[in-house]
Design goal:
single chain; 20 helices; alpha/beta; 4-stranded antiparallel beta sheet; 519 residues; Rossmann fold
C-alpha cells in the first residue's frame, strides 16, 4: 500500500490465565494510507476496542508493533507526539467530562500537552466551533448539557489537540439514530476538510459501508477481511449470509476478552467458606508477632493453592490496596516499634527528617508491620470473592445474617445491602478503569509533579462519582419496578452442606489459630 501512514504488524494481545495465555487478538496485520476512513468491524468481544487501545499506545501487546509514519507507538520519545497527533474517543466519551465549564474541559488535553493557557483556549474554541456546539454553552457546566450536547463537547475535547489521526470506538453508541447521523455527518466533514485519517470501530455494517472507504473485519481476535467497502458485500456472499451476520452480530462470541474461569472454584459450600474466611481474617488481625503473621499468610497461601487461583488474579486483587500499604509504611508509627524496638540503638537510627518530623528504622519496621498485616488480612478474605459467585455468596450470607434462618427479615435486608455492595465493586473498578483510560488518552500522564497528581485525582474522582450516582439511580429504579420492598425475602437462604472439602478448609483455618499457640 503506497503512502502507508499506519502499519500494524503481527499484533498479538492477551493475558495470563490459569490454563495459560488467553489471546484477545491473534497475529493481526494491516496498513492504512493517509486520509483513509477505515471501519474496524466485528461482533461485541471480537477485539475491536482492544485493537484501538493498542493503537493508542495504552495497552502493550504480547507481540507485534504499531508504527505511525515511522514512529513506534510504544517508544517513550514518541509519547507526546502520539497524544497530540492521535485523538481517541471511547464509547460514550461524555462520561469523562469533569471540569467546571465546557470550555475548560475541552482545554484539558492541550494543557496536558504543554500549551499555554492562551493557546489552549484558542485550540478549545476552534474545536468547539468545529463540532457546532453553540457558543452560549461554552461557559455552562457539562453536567447541565443534554446527552447529545455532551457528546459534542467530548468530541471537541478529542479534536482540541488538532490530531492527524482519529481512533473512534462506537462513536454513535447511546445516541438516537438522528443524533448518530448528525454526529457522523459532522465528523465526515471534519475528516474530509482536513484530510484526517480515521479508524472507526463498529458492529454496524451500514455505517461501515456508507461512511468508510475500507473495512477490517475481526472475528475471534483474527483479521478475516481487509478491503474496500465495495468489496464487503462480495466477501459476505462468498462465505454465506448467515456467517456474514455472525461476524457483526451485536452479541458475545467465543473471544470476549473476559475471563472464562469458573468463579465457584473446585468445590466448597459458600456458608462454610464465609466462616473460614472470617476465622482466618480475625486470627490474622490479632497476630502479635512476625512468626504468628507468617503462619497466617502461609495458611492463606495454602487456601489459594487449594482453589487453584492464578497469581494474576491475586495480583489484581491486591493492586488497589498498595497505596494504603505505602501510606502505612510511612505513617504506621506504632505497634512493635513503639514498644520493643524504638528503645534500642539499632531501631533508633534516623533515616530522614522533615521539619520537626523524624523517621527512624524503628518507624520503618513498625510501618512494615502495619502494612504487611493489612495486606495479610486482605489475602485472608480475598479468596472468598475469587472463588464464589455473588449470588451464592449472598444466599450463604443471608443464612448467617438471619441467625441460621431464625430472623429472616433482618437477614434479607442485610443480605440485600451486601449483595448491592458486592455488585458495585466490579462496577466501580470497571468505571474507574474506563475513565482512567479516557483521561490517559487526553495526555494526563504527561503532566508531572504535584500538578499532575492534582489533575489525575480531579479528572478521575468527579466523573467516577457521577457515573456511580447514575448507576445507583438505575439500580434503585430497577428494584422498584421489580417490586422490591424492604424486608422481603429477596434471596433464598442456603443451608450449609458440610463435606470433605469443607472439613479440610476448616481444618486449615483452624491451624492458623492453633499453630501460633503451640510454637
Amino acid at each position: 500500500m503506497k503512502d502507508s501512514l499506519i502499519t500494524v504488524e503481527q499484533l498479538t494481545v492477551g493475558y495470563k490465565a490459569a490454563e495459560g495465555t488467553a489471546l484477545i487478538l491473534r497475529d493481526v496485520s494491516f496498513q492504512v494510507a493517509a486520509g483513509t476512513r477505515l471501519a474496524v468491524v466485528g461482533a461485541v468481544g471480537s477485539g475491536k476496542t482492544t485493537l484501538l487501545k493498542v493503537m493508542g499506545g495504552l495497552l502493550r501487546p504480547l507481540a507485534g508493533r504499531v508504527i505511525y509514519d515511522g514512529r513506534d507507538a510504544f517508544a517513550a520519545e514518541h509519547r507526546r507526539w502520539l497524544r497530540e497527533r492521535v485523538g481517541i474517543s471511547w464509547q460514550q466519551p461524555e462520561q469523562q467530562l469533569f471540569a467546571e465549564t465546557v470550555l475548560t474541559d475541552v482545554m484539558f488535553a492541550p494543557l496536558n500537552l504543554g500549551y499555554s493557557p492562551e493557546a489552549a483556549k484558542e485550540a478549545a474554541e476552534e474545536a468547539l466551533r468545529s463540532v457546532g456546539l453553540p457558543e452560549e454553552l461554552w461557559a455552562v457546566s457539562p453536567f447541565h448539557l443534554s446527552g447529545g450536547e455532551r457528546r459534542l463537547a467530548a468530541m471537541a475535547g478529542t479534536l482540541a489537540t488538532r490530531p492527524q489521526i482519529l481512533l473512534l470506538d462506537e462513536p454513535t453508541a447511546g445516541l438516537d439514530p438522528a443524533a448518530g447521523r448528525r454526529l457522523l455527518t459532522l465528523l465526515g466533514k471534519k475528516v474530509a476538510a482536513e484530510g484526517l485519517t480515521c479508524l472507526l470501530a463498529t458492529h454496524d455494517r451500514k455505517i461501515a459501508s456508507l461512511w468508510c472507504d475500507e473495512i477490517v473485519v475481526l472475528h475471534s481476535g483474527r483479521l478475516v477481511f481487509h478491503g474496500r467497502s465495495a468489496g464487503w458485500s462480495g466477501f459476505v456472499a462468498s462465505i454465506g449470509p448467515s456467517q456474514g451476520e455472525e461476524l457483526t452480530e451485536a452479541g458475545p462470541n467465543d473471544n470476549s476478552g473476559e475471563r472464562r474461569e469458573d468463579p465457584a472454584g473446585p468445590a466448597g459450600d459458600p456458608a462454610i467458606k464465609i466462616a473460614a474466611a472470617g476465622l482466618l481474617a480475625a486470627a490474622t488481625a490479632i497476630s502479635g508477632n512476625w512468626l504468628d503473621l507468617l503462619i497466617k499468610m502461609v495458611v492463606a497461601t495454602a487456601i489459594y493453592a487449594l482453589h487453584k487461583i492464578p497469581l494474576r488474579s491475586v495480583g489484581k486483587l491486591l493492586r488497589p490496596f498498595w497505596p494504603l500499604v505505602v501510606a502505612a509504611i510511612i505513617f504506621g508509627r506504632g505497634g512493635e516499634s513503639g514498644t520493643t524496638l524504638s528503645g534500642t540503638a539499632l531501631f533508633s537510627t534516623v533515616l530522614f527528617s522533615a521539619g520537626g518530623w523524624t523517621y527512624t528504622t524503628g518507624d520503618l519496621v513498625a510501618g512494615l508491620w502495619v502494612g504487611t498485616k493489612f495486606m495479610a488480612v486482605i489475602l485472608a478474605v480475598g479468596w472468598l470473592g475469587l472463588t464464589t459467585t455473588p449470588t451464592r455468596l449472598t444466599r450463604a450470607l443471608s443464612w448467617w445474617l438471619s441467625l441460621g434462618g431464625l430472623c429472616r427479615r433482618l437477614g434479607a435486608n442485610l443480605a440485600m445491602a451486601v449483595f448491592v455492595a458486592m455488585r458495585f465493586y466490579p462496577v466501580f473498578v470497571s468505571e474507574a478503569e474506563r475513565i482512567r483510560l479516557a483521561q490517559e488518552s487526553r495526555g494526563i500522564s504527561l503532566v508531572r509533579g504535584l500538578a499532575g497528581i492534582g489533575r489525575r485525582i480531579t479528572s478521575l474522582v468527579i466523573p467516577l462519582s457521577a457515573a456511580l450516582i447514575r448507576r445507583t439511580e438505575t439500580l434503585a429504579t430497577a428494584l422498584v419496578l421489580r417490586g422490591y420492598r424492604p424486608g422481603q425475602a429477596g434471596f433464598t437462604t442456603a443451608v450449609p452442606q458440610i463435606g470433605r472439602f469443607e472439613l479440610l478448609l476448616m481444618m486449615i483455618c483452624g491451624l492458623a489459630v492453633l499453630l501460633p499457640l503451640l510454637v
